[in-house]
Automatic annotation (TrEMBL), chain A:
<dbReference type="InterPro" id="IPR000515">
    <property type="entry name" value="MetI-like"/>
</dbReference>
<dbReference type="InterPro" id="IPR035906">
    <property type="entry name" value="MetI-like_sf"/>
</dbReference>
<dbReference type="Pfam" id="PF00528">
    <property type="entry name" value="BPD_transp_1"/>
</dbReference>
<protein>
    <submittedName>
        <fullName>Carbohydrate ABC transporter permease</fullName>
    </submittedName>
</protein>
<feature type="transmembrane region" description="Helical">
    <location>
        <begin position="96"/>
        <end position="118"/>
    </location>
</feature>
<keyword id="KW-0472">Membrane</keyword>
<comment type="similarity">
    <text>Belongs to the binding-protein-dependent transport system permease family.</text>
</comment>
TrEMBL record, chain B:
<feature type="domain" description="ABC transporter">
    <location>
        <begin position="6"/>
        <end position="236"/>
    </location>
</feature>
<keyword id="KW-0067">ATP-binding</keyword>
<dbReference type="InterPro" id="IPR012340">
    <property type="entry name" value="NA-bd_OB-fold"/>
</dbReference>
<dbReference type="InterPro" id="IPR003439">
    <property type="entry name" value="ABC_transporter-like_ATP-bd"/>
</dbReference>
<comment type="function">
    <text>Involved in beta-(1--&gt;2)glucan export. Transmembrane domains (TMD) form a pore in the inner membrane and the ATP-binding domain (NBD) is responsible for energy generation.</text>
</comment>
<dbReference type="InterPro" id="IPR015855">
    <property type="entry name" value="ABC_transpr_MalK-like"/>
</dbReference>
<dbReference type="GO" id="GO:0005524">
    <property type="term" value="F:ATP binding"/>
</dbReference>
Automatic annotation (TrEMBL), chain C:
<dbReference type="Pfam" id="PF00528">
    <property type="entry name" value="BPD_transp_1"/>
</dbReference>
<dbReference type="InterPro" id="IPR035906">
    <property type="entry name" value="MetI-like_sf"/>
</dbReference>
<feature type="domain" description="ABC transmembrane type-1">
    <location>
        <begin position="68"/>
        <end position="283"/>
    </location>
</feature>
<keyword id="KW-0472">Membrane</keyword>
<protein>
    <submittedName>
        <fullName>Sugar ABC transporter permease</fullName>
    </submittedName>
</protein>
<feature type="transmembrane region" description="Helical">
    <location>
        <begin position="106"/>
        <end position="125"/>
    </location>
</feature>
<feature type="transmembrane region" description="Helical">
    <location>
        <begin position="200"/>
        <end position="220"/>
    </location>
</feature>
């Protein structure tokens, strides 16, 4: 072995950029382009007048950028029958979002707390069943739920869609908080019990204040999830409360005659805006949310 | 089996602006067992990783077997390495863990089998060859990791805290096994640890490190008996060495003065001219002797606490002026808290350090 | 620890919403759906039991067969491409590249967007008259054709392109977490062993990451069965019925075609498929958890 080794020349300091390194950066650059292309095209298209879109190049920068299409998308684009722009959908989504996020996190954290720290009979079975349910497509539940809500008189309404989001958010929220509480030192819980704190006192005064990071993750997860929902809003929210995603689809896909691609793209960007802001604003928290949500089961 | 020497010349390592090692020189002879000993963050693992080629150096040279390998890939350095976390490939059997590197290097199958068989027999792994790492105990895993290093037939074996993840009993067993292996193979070994017992039992020579600097490089016996500074003195040895502050005075012979106590230093070999700067006297617990009160050189002390430690007993005492120290007696010592004793500090077992610099006088 | 009666009651009260949802929504609704699928209900549910007749009709329905065919193509391509691309992206980022955070953000941002947005953007990009095909031709590639979205036999692949774009970042995030979890000493040991990097990934790292792969694959697969918004927004099932998918089949038959017997039979078929995928996975995870 050393006989061979001695034939080798004295070692040299390696160069900083090897060909492999160049290849790596080329790969990253090209894939990054693929991921950025749609966002770029959305932005430039939304800033061009229709004439330029018809003649020009999809990738070209706008000759004379204008926000006309944005204004039109926000205030006067037509969603089927009415022409009041996507702003209606924006505010509908907001009205759905705020109570849904709050209530689903409240109930999810309480359930997760009860299932993790209080050794109740059947808790594991309940939790396991919820995990299975998290994977089941909505189509299985939708029809009976529609019937139940119309039977109770709620029908399609804001309250209905909030309840629906709470129901379908429950498995993930429970999982999130159960795993978090289970990772805390159990001595903390025991100490609180020895001090005589009751079930809800421990929850409100000890556990939730410690769960701030999980609450942030849950808010991010639920905000993007509920904002991006299409099918539940379509079925349960009712005509007056249709969320932004449904309105957007109506604007783009139910146009008669020539389509205003600039308006479509402006409306699309407006719909994507909130999740994008949450995503870029939250940085690593979003990744943490994925990681926490990904350990389903 | 090949045995290589290792030569490190004015080695510099840094991460960003932080200097970890600066101008470090070290020579490890063929077949030598060298232990790098020090607290965490002293640079010992960094040094070992640099020898292995796992981190880039900023300056200086590393020679292994007479060849400059400063910038060579780890596989071309003629080294093998054993890691603290074992670093076994989790989804491969023991056999494949040991043979994989050879196979990728294109070693003939028959040669691979011969080497794996030999290493497995040496480490008593033959019956475990088809198991996965997850099916092994910690001690078995570390033997596999050693086996994976052995089959490389390297000139130098590097060990990075290999026993620190094991419990005390296994650690003692594997320590013996490694020592036996060294005796049998006669290979050059460099071994990093923070455990002074491992260092003392295994090493031909120990390099005690702190702050990226080798404080003392010597045989275990010298390190233990004649530490060059207070750091080495306090880091090596358990129970720890006693330190008593005082000063030197000349009254015919050199005398150590601490409060009302005076201790003659006849028999102590000074390294440098003594001065009257404050000094610290160090003495190991087992070197303090109990004598009768009529002994001229004895000092009266009062027992404060007795700690039985199985094979022997540690006795905590105070001198009349309150200075605390401990000393060691056999397990049968009939000593109780509150007893009055007379003890003697033999001059030839002492260490004296300059209080300001901590250097041995 | 023994629980006092009050604590026990409090705990049970906290679980009431979950229990209600479990029994009324999940179990109740599922059973009702399954029951309806066994009756000859049309616009409204009735209790005329007809056995598996709806299923017979379902599997003789062209539109359903096309939907199933499509979802198989979509599922296989989407899951394998997203896994492959996501893994490669994670490996690339794991090479201590500069501006790591920015690159990761770029790969992952599509996952924050809805399927509706994804579908509409890609509908625009793939539009043959003004989209990518037009760009290629204007660059001088006169014969360039990229009109998959308007051709019945290729429309489903357009959904794959959009889906992979949206979900690869998710796989990347899961894989990157897995790669970062690999003990650094394994890499050191492999370097001392002289293994080339690709060999370490293939022979050592990928086998170690079975949990990450399984998690990503299951997440992607459940997304496949649910696929609805993307098809609606991007092609609305077209051209013709060329890009129909099962979830859309259920929704259309529930709310437009007023054939709830057939719709629930389709939904029940989806349910069985999901359980067939998820149950072994959950079982495997539970076993693994016990072993640890």
């Amino acid at each position: 072995m050393t006989a061979v080794a001695q034939l080798l020349p004295a070692s040299r300091r390696p160069k900083r950029m090897t060909p492999a390194r160049w290849g790596l950066y080329a790969f990253i650059f090209i894939t990054a382009l693929y991921f950025l292309l749609p966002l770029y095209v959305m932005i430039v298209t939304s800033l061009k007048p229709m004439a330029e879109i018809r003649q020009g190049n999809l990738l070209a920068l706008p000759a004379a950028p204008s926000i006309d299409a944005w204004v039109k998308a926000w205030t006067s684009a037509c969603t089927g029958l009415t022409c009041q722009g996507i702003k209606i959908g924006f505010f509908n989504s907001l009205r759905i979002l705020v109570p849904s996020v709050g209530i689903s996190i409240l109930i999810g954290s309480l359930t997760g707390y009860a299932l993790s720290l209080w050794r109740l009979p059947g808790a594991n079975i309940l939790f396991g069943a919820m995990m299975v349910v998290a994977f089941i497509p909505y189509q299985v539940f939708i029809y009976p739920l529609v019937r139940v809500f119309s039977f109770t008189g709620l029908g399609q309404s804001l309250l209905t869609i909030v309840i629906i989001h709470t129901i379908f958010g429950l498995p993930t929220m429970t999982l999130l908080f159960r795993n978090y509480f289970a990772s805390l030192p159990v001595e903390l819980f025991k100490a609180a019990r020895v001090d005589g704190a009751g079930f809800y006192q421990i929850y409100a005064l000890i556990m939730m204040p410690m769960a701030t990071p999980m609450i942030v993750v849950a808010v991010i997860l639920q905000t993007t999830g509920i904002w991006n929902d299409f099918i539940l809003g379509l079925i349960f929210a009712g005509r007056d409360n249709l969320p932004m995603t449904v309105q957007l689809n109506n604007i783009v896909n139910s146009t008669q005659g020539e389509r205003a691609y600039n308006v479509d793209m402006a409306a699309t960007l407006l719909t994507a805006l909130l999740p994008l802001v949450v995503y870029f604003g939250s940085g690593r928290w979003f990744v943490r949310g994925i990681a926490a949500g990904a350990v389903k089961g | 089996m090949q045995k290589s020497s290792v030569d490190i010349r004015s080695l510099q390592i840094g991460f960003g602006g932080l200097k970890v090692l600066e101008n470090l020189d070290l020579h490890v002879g063929e077949s030598e067992f060298l232990v790098l000993l020090g607290p965490s963050g002293c640079g010992k693992s960094t040094l070992l990783n640099a020898i292995a080629g796992l981190i880039d150096v900023k300056g200086g040279e590393i020679h292994i077997g007479g060849r400059d390998v400063t910038w060579a890939e780890p596989k071309d350095r003629g080294i093998a390495m054993v890691f603290q976390s074992y670093a076994l490939y989790p989804r491969m059997s023991v056999r494949r863990n040991m043979s994989f590197g050879l196979k990728v290097a294109g070693t003939p199958q028959s040669e691979i089998e011969r080497r794996v068989g030999e290493a497995a027999q040496m480490l008593r792994l033959t019956s475990l060859l088809e198991r996965r790492p997850s099916e092994l105990s910690g001690g078995q895993r570390q033997r596999v990791a050693i086996g994976r290093a052995l089959v490389r037939h390297a000139g130098v074996y590097l060990f990075d805290e290999p026993l620190s993840n094991l419990d005390a009993q296994l650690r003692a067993e594997l320590r013996v096994e490694i020592k036996r292996l060294h005796a049998r193979l006669g290979a050059t070994m460099i071994y990093v640890t923070h455990d002074q017992i491992e260092a003392l039992t295994l090493a031909d020579r120990i390099a005690v490190m702190q702050g990226g600097v080798i404080q003392q490089l010597d045989t275990p016996k010298k390190i233990y008996r004649e530490p060059v500074n207070r750091f080495v003195a306090s880091f090596v040895g358990s129970p720890a060495m006693n330190f008593i502050p005082g000063r030197l005075a000349r009254g015919g012979e050199m005398v150590f003065v601490a409060g009302v106590n005076r201790l003659g230093l006849n028999g102590y070999v000074f390294r440098s001219q003594p001065t009257d700067a404050p000094v610290v006297l160090g003495i190991r617990p087992e070197h303090i002797e109990m004598t009768g009160a009529d002994d001229q050189s004895s000092v009266p002390a009062r027992v404060e606490m007795v700690e039985p430690m199985g094979a022997d007993t540690l006795i905590w005492c105070r001198l009349a002026d309150g200075t605390a120290f401990s000393f060691r007696r056999d397990a049968d010592a009939q000593v109780r808290a509150g007893d009055a004793l007379a003890v003697r500090f033999p001059a030839d077992a002492l260490s004296l350090f300059d209080e300001a610099s901590g250097q041995r006088l | 620890m023994r629980l006092s009666l009050t604590s026990r009651l409090s705990a049970i009260s906290a679980l009431l919403p979950a229990l209600l949802v479990m029994f009324v929504v999940y179990i109740g609704a599922t059973s009702w759906t399954v029951w309806i699928s066994l009756t000859n209900s049309r616009m409204l549910p009735n209790n005329n039991f007809i056995g598996l007749r709806q299923y017979e009709m379902l599997f003789n329905n062209d539109r359903w067969i096309t939907s199933v065919h499509n979802i198989v193509i979509y599922g296989v391509l989407f899951v394998s491409l997203a896994l492959l691309i996501g893994f490669l992206l994670a490996v690339a980022i794991d090479q201590r590249v500069r501006a790591e955070d920015t690159i990761r953000s770029i790969y992952l941002y599509p996952y924050s967007m809805s399927f509706v947005v994804t579908g509409l953007v890609w509908q625009w990009l793939l539009n043959p008259t003004l989209g990518i095909q037009h760009v290629l031709r204007s660059w001088g590639f006169e014969g360039a054709t990229f009109d998959w979205i308007v051709r019945p036999e290729t429309a489903i692949y357009c959904l794959v392109i959009a889906g992979v774009w949206q979900a690869s970042g998710l796989v990347m995030a899961i894989m990157l977490a897995g790669l970062r979890g690999v003990d650094e000493e394994i890499w050191k040991a492999a370097r001392v062993d002289g293994l080339p990097k690709w060999r370490v990934y293939v022979s050592i790292i990928i086998p170690m990451m079975d949990a990450s792969f399984a998690t990503a694959a299951v997440l992607l697969s459940t997304g496949v069965v649910r696929l609805y918004d993307l098809s609606v927004a991007m092609t609305n099932g077209g051209p013709g019925i060329a890009s129909e998918v099962p979830a859309k089949f259920v929704m259309d038959h529930l709310f437009e075609r007023a054939n709830i017997g057939l719709a629930t039979a389709a939904a029940t078929t989806m349910l069985i498929t999901v359980i067939a995928v998820v149950a072994p996975y959950l079982y495997w995870r539970a076993r693994k958890g016990e072993m640890r």
